[in-house]
Structures are given as structure tokens and as C-alpha cells.
Amino acid sequence: MIRVPGFNNVRTDDTLTTAMRDDLQARLSRPAQVFPTVLMPKLVAISIAKLKPNYELDKLATTEAQNLAANVVPLARGDVKLKANMIISEKGEIKPGDFTRLRAEHDAFIGSLGNTIWLQRLGLFATVIAVTVMGMQYIAHFQPRILRNHARAGGLAALLITMLLLAQLTGLGSTRSYVFGIAPTVMVAMILAIAYDRRFAMGISSLHAILATLALGEDLNFLLILVTGTTACCFLLEDVRTRSKLIEVGGGAAIAMMAVTFATGWLEMDPFRYILRNAIYSGAAGLAIGFLSLGILPFIERVFRITTSMTLLELADASHPLLRRLALEAPGTYNHSLQVATLSEEAAEAIGGNSLLCRVAAYYHDVGKINKAEYFVENQQPGTNRHLNLSPSVSLLIIKGHVKDGIELAKEYNLPTSIMPFIQQHHGTTLVEYFYHRARQEMDRNDPLERNIEEHEYRYDGPKPQRKEVAVVMLADCCESACRGMEEPNASRIETLVHELAMKRLLDGQFDESELTMRELELIERSLVKSLLGLYHGRIQYPSDAEMRNPTPHPDHQSPAAKTA
Prior knowledge:
This protein has 565 residues and is mainly alpha-helical. The protein has 3 domains: 1-59, no CATH class; 118-306, Arp2/3 complex 21 kDa subunit ARPC3; 321-535, Orthogonal Bundle (Hypothetical protein af1432). 64% of the residues lie in helices and 0% in strands. It is built from 25 helices and no strands. It has helices spanning 18-32, 40-50, 59-72, 96-112, 117-142, 144-148, 150-170, 183-195, 198-216, 220-236, 244-267, 272-295, 297-304, 309-315, 321-329, 331-350, 355-364, 392-412, 420-425, 433-446, 468-484, 491-507, 518-535, 545-549, 560-564. The radius of gyration is 41 Å and the shape is elongated.
């Protein structure tokens, strides 16, 4: 459409280009002012219908002409030649163009060295190899399980290499290195502190800081800022129980790096604007890492197969679908699990273990009883016992089956892998004593000459507890069950019972693979006794309604006549 003042829009031929239409509109607007208003639309319509373009744009010829013109221009036309002793950058802030010239001057100097540059590269290669060997030795000494688990070792290597490349690729500018060059190394420290422990994270991240400094060609001040950020992360990141914890750690690392940036800037007597800008960049890097770590925390847990305290607290919620199902279908087991969780948490705290993990794992350690809840004594009504009409061997299969069923339910409800060992190992390879003795009694009664029943046939499949926390749950489980069946629990009986059960499992070799010491076993016994006394403490027997209506008078409150009688 062409718009001409004084008449309606007139559609033009589609072959007209935009420039041609604009030119045509300008040309037609002038004579249109001479003709009367009635004739203007008709004249314009006739002109547009008859006029055709007399030239077209040849894109191929235009491109060839541009290429020919570009080839005529010499390659050195855009080069800027600097004479000897010429000032490259004036005093003050370095502009982007000045920085480009400075880098070009540096590259020219490196190129002028000739073969001697290979010595510098050889030294860099030797330094990287030395730092890498130190890192491998550090891993072998403090985290040897990484070397045994190839998947975990590959994940750690991929993390370190990726963050190093990220620092090198994004930290190429004059000022961006204080953001993108610092952030990857601080991220390494935070991830390793979450996945392993603070000492291991501090060592590996410090070695990574050396490699990042070499890759970026920075000085000792930059390395000091990096080490400060990683150290602050490792010291502050003790336990992730809330979502704001990672943000707080990132903020603490940001403050520490900003302080060191100011200190090193004043030490080098840099302009204040540079110091302030670098401090802001380093602080932004710390804060960004806190938010980024919070976003990728589920991915970190899945890759390194860990469970943070924040995830454990979510699993401890009574509204979890599996816990709700346990409470509805096996209420006795649910109540038993709550008691075991209380005992386990206190006992693990006594030996310096992961008390939160013990408490949450105890909630789920018997979930396998959901499938056949009525075959377990805590879920049976008084006077009913499903095992009376079953042979001991069949009853044994049902009792042992709750371990396998528990693992399947845990996988179905996507429980973390850290919970699985508690479900699988909380019985270890202990003997199912009740049905073992019952089987022997039936054998002696029916056919005394039959072969003896071996103990290993009536033992759980195991494996034995592989860590201290699982051993704590094992002891808490058996002690709570035994005390629940005690008629009159008191301090001496509970203490004796706990000691006997602990010694029985110790002599049975159930703690051989858990690295549990005798001192820790004693502390666990004391904690269990104390907690069980709190659960089964003596209570005041309240009088009945009849006794309240006809109370027996106290001897001191009787009348003199009654005392004489």
C-alpha cells in the first residue's frame, strides 16, 4: 500500500521494493497538489498501475563486487603500529582498546623468545603434573573409597576438569577473571564439602585453585583470594539442614573474598576504583555460587549418591507416602519404628555419629513388614497368632522376607541410597531364635533320629552392618523389642537386658565390619539404657472412681478413738 496525502491507500505491484515505493510516493505527492481533489485518486491509481520497475538488485554480482573490494585492501591496513618507547596506555583506568594492545604486545614479546618459550611450557606442564600427583595422593590417603569406585572417581575427575576449563574459557577478560575465574573453584569446594567432608574439600579445592591460577596466568594475589573463598566455604558448610544454608555460606565466602581483595589491592597500591570493582566481582562470584549450588543440589546428591540433612528432614515428615502407608497398614510396626528412631538418634549422638541419618533411617527400617503386617507380633491382636498353623520353615521365610520387601518398597518410593543399608543390614546375619528353637522342638518330638537343624539355616541373609550408624539401629531395634515384652521394666532389668543383647551380637560377630570400638559400644549401651528408662519409666497408679468416692483415711488423720481401737 502507498499512502499519498489527500486520497485513499492504493495497492501497488508486489515487485516494487520499499525504496522504490517511498520514492514513488514522494514524486506523486507533488503533482497531486495541482489537480483537483476528485482527480487525485484516479491519477495516482493509473500511474501506479502503468509504472513498472526498470532495474533489479543482483545479489550475486553485489557479493562478488564486495569480495573484490575487500581483496584490494591490504591485511595490514587495520594494524596499529606502535613505535619504540611509545606509551601504550595512559595513567589511570585501562580501556578495552588499551588492554587489547597490551595483550598484543605481550604476545609479540612471547613470540620473540623463539625456542625458549618451550622451556616455559615445559615448566608449566611439570607444575601441572606435580599438582595432579599431589591431588591423587591426597585422595588416596583421605578418601580411598573413591579409588575403589570407578564411577565416583570418574565423576570427581569430570567435576575438576570441567570447572578448570570453565574458569579458563570464561576468565579471559581483564576484569572478568574475578567473577568467572573465581566461581568455578569455589563451586568445587562447596560440592566436595557437601559430598564428602570439609577437610577433603579444602585440600582438593586448594590444589584446584593453583591450577586455575596457572591457567589464567594470574598472580599470587589471585591465588590468595581463591584459597580464601574455598576455605570459607569449607569452614561454614558443616551441615545442610535448611535451604538458606547454602546462601549463607555463599554470602560468608563473598565477604571473606571481598576483604582479601581489598587487602591485596592495597598491598599492590592499585587505584581504588580497581580495588572496589574487583571486590564487587569477587563478592558477586561468592553469592552466585550459593544460589547456583542450591539449584543443582538434587543433581549433586544423585551424582555422588549422598543424602544431605535437608533431604533427610524432608523424609522425616510424617506425611511421607510410605510412612503414612506404614502407619495405616502396620500401626504396631510404625509405633515401634518411632521408638527405635528416638533410641538411635541419642545413641548415635553419644558416639559422634550421624544422628539425623539414624533417626530417619529407623523410621523406614521395617517398612517391609507392610506386605504381611499381621504375621509380626507388634501388629497382632491379643489371642491371635498367624504362625500357629504354619511350619517353622514357612514362618522363617515370612520373617526374613520383610528385609527384601523393604528394599523393594524403598526403590518404589525413591528413597535415597543412604537409607537402603539400614533396611538390609539392621538384622545382619543374626539367628531367628524363636522359630529356630521351635523347629528343633518339633524335630525332637516327631523324629528324634532326624538330622540336626543347623543354625545358618535360620539366620538372616545379611550382610552384617557396614557402618556404625547401622550397628546403632540394630541394637536399638532389638533392645526396644525386648523391653516392650518385659513385664516389669526397671533400671536393673533394662541395664542387664541391654548389656546381654549387645554382648550377644558382639560375640556373634555382627559388629566386625562396622568399625565399632568397645568404647563406642559402651557409650551406646549407656545411651540406650537412659533412653529406655525414659520410655518405660514407672508411673503413679491413679485410684479408681470407687476409691475416690470412699477414700481410705490415712493413719495420721484418724481420730484418737480410732487409733485406740
